[in-house]
Structure formats: C-alpha cells, structure tokens
C-alpha cells in the first residue's frame, strides 16, 4: 500500500568555472573601506581591469594586488580599495579580493624551473 511520497533525487550541482581552481569572485557586501566591482578582462601578462559598481572608468589591477590569487576571472564580482597612481595620474585597484589562482605556465619565463634543493642532510 504505502506508495505516496517518493522524494525525487536532488538536482546535480552546477559545474565549476572553467580555469584551474574554478570560481573566483566574492559574495556579500564589501568590507568597510572597500568598493565592489566586476572583473572585466585579464591579460596573461598579469594585469587586468575592474569596472567599479559605483561607475567611472575601469580601474587597472596588477596581479600583485590580488590578495587571494594571481588573476581575475572576467565577469566575477570583486572587492577592492581605490588608490591614486601618481605615475599614471589615475586611480587603480589595490588589495583586491575575489581572485583565482592561475597556473602561470608556458614560455613567458616567469622565473621558471629553479629545481627545489632545500635542505639536505
């Protein structure tokens, strides 16, 4: 008799973002002193641009300023502080959160190889 309720299996989880480590981006409102924006494009040389939600021109972002990765995935939400770059005469993004860790491979000679060799004895 007791047919009735058969729970349907839950839907499969969404596939992770393409690149290594997937995802990137942040959720929730930005912390005190930070702004929110969208990562626009990323150059494999290690820099890209962020479009601030508050408007204005896109902000330059160097990979050294990403606190939780070394690249930004286009289209993801990021938090950042704005800092005036004297040499360029415009604002840029610093202390960026919402990055991804990207394999920096292939050719470009980012200090490659350098076999381990720590320790001994």
From TrEMBL:
Positions with biased composition (Gly residues): 1-27, 106-121
CDD domains for the chain: CSP_CDS
Compositional bias of kind Basic and acidic residues: 92-105
GO MF terms held by the record: nucleic acid binding
Pfam families for the chain: CSD
Domain named CSD: residues: 34-98
Tree of life domain: Eukaryota
Record region (Disordered): 1-39, 92-121
Transmembrane domains' residue ranges: none
Protein's recorded name: CSD domain-containing protein
Species this protein is from: Prymnesium polylepis
Classification of source organism: Eukaryota, Haptista, Haptophyta, Prymnesiophyceae, Prymnesiales
């Amino acid at each position: 008799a007791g047919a009735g309720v058969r729970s349907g299996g839950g839907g499969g989880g969404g596939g992770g973002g393409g690149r290594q480590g997937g995802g990137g981006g942040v959720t929730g409102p930005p912390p005190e002193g930070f702004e929110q924006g969208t990562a626009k494009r990323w150059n494999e040389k290690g820099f890209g641009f962020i479009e601030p939600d508050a408007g204005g021109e896109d902000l330059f972002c160097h990979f050294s300023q990403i606190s939780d990765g070394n690249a930004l995935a286009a289209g993801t939400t990021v938090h950042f502080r704005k800092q005036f770059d004297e040499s360029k005469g415009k604002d840029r993004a610093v202390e960026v959160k919402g990055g991804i860790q990207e394999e920096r491979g292939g050719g470009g000679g980012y200090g490659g190889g350098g076999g381990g060799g720590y320790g001994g004895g």
